[in-house]
# Entry
Amino acid sequence: MVAETQQVRVELRGGGDFVELGGGGGGRVWNRLTVVRPAQGDEPEVRIEVEVDEDGVTECRDVRVVSVGAGRAVRARDLRTVRLDDLIEAGFGLAVVQRAELSEQARRHGVDPDDWYTGSTAGESRAAVGGLRRRKRDRNRKITDDLLREVAEVYRANVDNGPTQAVAERFVKAPSTAALYVKLARNAGFLGAAIKGRAGEQS
# Structure
């Protein structure tokens, strides 16, 4: 699959899988991307390989500046034009897909709504990139007592309706990370011990 704008195109590399972005219709994104800034005139092409971790945060694994066809050789100044974060965010926005609303006819024909996604609109892509920036800021967030108190508050407020998922959405984290936050909140004494087989805490 390839998505494209005038500035970049994004290719989904083999060996990957979809990562759920969570947080109120955040969609999902393939976790192995190649973002390409095509050659303009005789300028070289830029290709970057990006991986998306379980929290939806991008990591650049490779950058290539390539002379294409009869284009000129790569120059030092070409390297200075590579705006890595901008390329990653543009590619990320293109790669995000959103859950589609199925028609009644599609449902009658047995289409599974959990497997049905569509490309994002420009607005949805911008929202996804905004979420990516928040995740980058939060990635190195220190796990402080204040954070764990807030985890406990969110958990309790949603104890009857998916409390760990509510923590995941509040902090824009993967479910596994949210579960770790809940465990740390219990260990720190901000939540009571778990109740076997169901959500909640022992008093």
Summary: The chain has seven helices and nine strands. The chain has two domains: 2-119, 141-203. The CA atoms of residues 138 and 185 lie 18 Å apart. The radius of gyration is 21 Å.
